[in-house]
Design a protein that fits this description.
single chain; about 180 residues; mainly alpha; two-stranded parallel sheet; 7 helices; about 5% strand
């Protein structure tokens, strides 16, 4: 007996759902490209500059710590023959401790959930809130049921950019909202 791939069921269901849709009314769909937003919105550029400065500062601090480790290791090699075993063990423990501190510093500042990551979220959150508010207004005004983001690993394979791309409309709405806030 031939096995049917589980995705075949999903495809069949989606196909039936697509044919059933016209009876309920046609969905109005659009998309944006958040990469274009990031490139063209000055707020994102300002955040990027601030994050780059912060990252350079953290990298400089890490390099300073790395230099101290190299010096400590060189001092150890120069004096190794003259040291007692106890002193060697003490210096090795100090070196290992500083290596661990460097790794911890790097992780805390630039790791996946480090300060740099948290600062990015903190600075970006107000802009994302503005974008989401503008998207809601745009969707409500123009009657969109779904608005997708095609940046990164967006799941849209093809859409007519002249008909469905809302990126420019969104940028215009965000610019108008910014001008309105500046007037107040």
């Amino acid at each position: 007996m031939k096995r049917i791939h589980p995705f075949a069921y999903l495809a069949a269901f989606l196909g039936l759902a697509a044919f059933a849709q016209p009876a309920q009314g046609q969905a109005n769909i659009g998309y944006i490209d958040s990469e274009v937003l990031r490139e063209r919105m000055s707020e994102f550029k300002q955040i990027q500059r601030e994050l780059e400065r912060l990252e350079q500062d953290y990298q400089q601090q890490a390099m300073d710590r790395q230099s101290k480790l190299v010096k400590l290791q060189e001092d150890f090699r120069k004096q190794e023959l003259l040291m007692s075993e106890a002193k060697k063990a003490e210096m090795q423990a100090a070196f290992d401790s500083q290596v661990q501190e460097l790794q911890q510093f790097t992780q805390e500042k630039m790791g996946p959930n480090g300060e740099l990551f948290r600062k990015n979220i903190e600075l970006s959150q107000p802009i994302f809130e503005q974008i989401n508010a503008a998207l809601e207004i745009l969707a409500d005004k123009d009657g969109y049921d779904f608005i997708f983001d095609v940046a990164g690993n967006g799941a849209i394979v093809y859409a007519d950019p002249d008909h469905f791309n809302l990126t420019e409309k969104l940028l215009t709405a965000l610019e108008e909202a910014r001008e309105e806030r500046e007037k107040q």
